[in-house]
Amino acid sequence: MKITLDLNCDLGESFGVYRLGQDEELLKLITSANIACGFHAGDPGTMRTTVKLALEQGVAIGAHPGLPDLIGFGRREMSMTPQEAYELMVYQIGALDGFVRAEGGVMQHVNAWSFI
User: How much is the pTM?
Assistant: First the structure.
């Protein structure tokens, strides 16, 4: 029996001029990454850069959508309908998937625990 371990990390949380985390260093150590999709953290440029770095390291890519709350890092309570929550998820997952496909990759998973 072969045992495998997936070492996973949330990445791509920088936005604008604000640099957060040590994504390049962590990508050398992990097997899968949850990349922020721009609502709770991240931005389009950070998403693209993180996707490219992950693919270069052979790291599996997943979307990490969140609430539209950069100031509160997606952790403040927000009231929305199930339809609104669904639309926010589809929007963010689609955005990251676009960057992944543009770089020739395939998205493996969605990490949506913080959205529930």
Answer: 0.91
